[in-house]
Amino acid sequence: MEQLIPLLIDILLIGILGWAMYWICTKFLAAFPPALWICGVILLILIIAMFTGSVPTPWHIRRP
């Protein structure tokens, strides 16, 4: 149960970040078609890094 809340926060953060990146790519970078691919790769790397523990997040509870 104690791991559920950080997991939900991670999923919510990735969803908000993905939506924001999509919005920026479609509104401001519409003339540059590879922008969505680049943002997708960045988001995929961030997802992999967050769930493998490579990127520390402040809301994860670390107990000895």
Q: In DSSP terms, counting alpha (H) and pi (I) runs of 4 or more, how many helices?
A: 2
Question: What amount of the residues lies in strands?
Answer: under 5%
The portion of residues assigned to helices is 55-70%
Round the Cα radius of gyration to an integer and report it: 14 Å
Unreliable spans: none
**Helix vs. strand class:** mainly alpha
* Number of strand elements: 0
- Compute the separation of the termini in Å: 17 Å
Mean pLDDT, nearest integer?
80
Order of helices and strands: HH
Shape: elongated
Largest sheet: none
Describe this structure in words.
The chain is mainly α. 66% of the residues lie in helices and 0% in strands. The protein has 2 helices and no strands. The chain has helices spanning 4-27, 35-52. Helix 1 packs antiparallel against helix 2. The longest helix has 24 residues, at 4-27. It starts with a helix and ends in a 12-residue tail after the last helix.
Show the helix and strand layout.
Blueprint: H1 4-27, H2 35-52
Characterize this entry briefly.
It is built from two helices and no strands.
Structural features:
about 60 residues, 2 helices
